[in-house]
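Thread: "does anyone have the structure for this chain?"

Original post by V.I.:
We have the sequence but no experimental structure in hand. Need at least a predicted one for the grant figures.
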Amino acid sequence: MAEPEEAKHKSRWSAAPPKRSSGTSAPSGTFKAEYMDIQVSADAPAAPKLSPAEISRNIMSAKEALEAAKKEEMVRQQIKEKLSKINITKKLLPTTTKLGIKPLTVDSLGRVLDETGNVMQHRPMMHSRLKINQNFESERMQKEAATAASAAAAPERQKLEKASKKAEQSQYVDPSLMTVKKRRRMALNFVEPGSYIRQERQLQRQMEDKAMGINHRSIQAHKKQLLEQQERRLAARQKIELAGERGVAVEEVTDNVEEMNPNLIPLKVGSRLDKKDSWDDDEPWLEWWDRGIIILKTGEDPFKTANAKKHQTLDIQPDLCMINEKKFNNYIEHPCKIDGKKKKAKEAPAIMLTKQERKKLRRRKREEKLKKIQDKIRVGLIPPPPPKLKLSNLMRVLKDQSVADPSRVEKQVREQMEERLRSHERRNEERKLTPEQRSKKHAKKWQVGKNEEIEAALFTIKSLTDSKLLFKVDINAQQFHLTGCCIVASHAPSVVVVEGSKLSIKRYIKLLMRRIKWEESEAAAGSEMPMPLVVPTGQFCKQIWTGSVKRRNFSHWSVAFAECDEEITEILRPFKAGHYYEMVQKYRDPLEDI
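Reply from O.Q.:
Generated one for you, tokens below.
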């Protein structure tokens, strides 16, 4: 009866799929086990009694495992669909066994089982929110990464070491090229006293030995050989004495009987020559720079008697030498002083500032000075000044006090104003120069400076019989701090010679040539009646020469009178200025030829 039923359900194209029994149908809300390769073991052990917390934790882990399996199945289905589109046969598709994926086994409670059938314990992941725990975790991860990197780099390091060893063994590779020489760190080392002197002596001895044909190394080797021979002799002597004390033969004490010589006597029992540096042993008593200063008591030069070379030293007993006193005297040789001062650069001329710039500069200087005072007040070095009271700010500063007693406050303000005025006048008086300082300042203006040239000028005046004109010539020369002389001659034109600074000579020339009116003269002083001005014919003042001189001929200013040319020459001879009068005599005005 089963066959007709099967035929009844046949389709036109193929047989109907077999129906699954109710016992094998999958429950609702789950997925098919044949796609996920999940097998529920019927032989699983009975679940032990667990606490609610453990049960919930196991359920959560099982859910996570199921979700992971779902995702994996979805990925596998997507891969199958893509492969089916490109006509790849099922034989090429890898199975779970081929991929190495083991089937997931769970018990009746949904817990994951391992291969042996035991429940797998899943520790929950603890995520810390504290910064210190996060730092610990990051440090731990860094250490693990470092250890892993070192473990990975160990084979490469071993390869490099092997390669370096092979390179060292090879005769065609220089191992020094593979290593990088590090720069030696300089330490703070102090020079010991006498170290350079010892080095110099060592070099001197080496030069002497080289000049004399001495091999220093052979000497050291010979010395070493002698020391070894002496040590052997001392050891043999001790062994002979030991054999005599014990009363035994020498052969029982030592094996080398041939080296034994009882007649050998050491220089000193237990002594041993100490090895010294070449610059310490046998230091010379006479150095080459002692030549001429130290002589023998007989008066001879030890260097000449020994036929010493230029820089050779001598070993002589100090008792045989003495100091040559003739080489010393009372005179001291002072070395030339070295001028360590740098040459000052040429100072550029000051810039001419405008009126606004000068005002701005003065204002800035006042502000800087006031700022310094304010800083001192803030720090507490000086007390703050009292308020500057005036009639205009009286009500604003004092306020209540001015309202209470205005008369007293006004009196106090006026006293302060008067005190400020007096202090201002007192400061002005203190700044004023004394008569001596004023005269020094005036003299400094007209005197010749250190680096200034001395200017000189020569004048001739037809007549200086007028006392007014003579007074002007004399007093202005004194005020300009000029040196020279004025010779008033009655028979010839007068001569005026002046020396001084460039500015004073310039002003004096301007005075004589432009300001003084030589053609005007007053009437005689004894006449009572006023007389008209007499204009003498031919009155003049001429500038004969002006220029710079090397030094002053006159030390002061003076006025002299002369009756003839010989007297004028006698007046100028002590000052070595006779050439000035010769210039006056030879002078000829070029305007006369016109």
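V.I.: this helps a lot. Residues 131-169 form the longest helix (39 residues).
O.Q.: and Residues 1-11, 20-45, 264-281, 522-536 have pLDDT under 50 and may be disordered.
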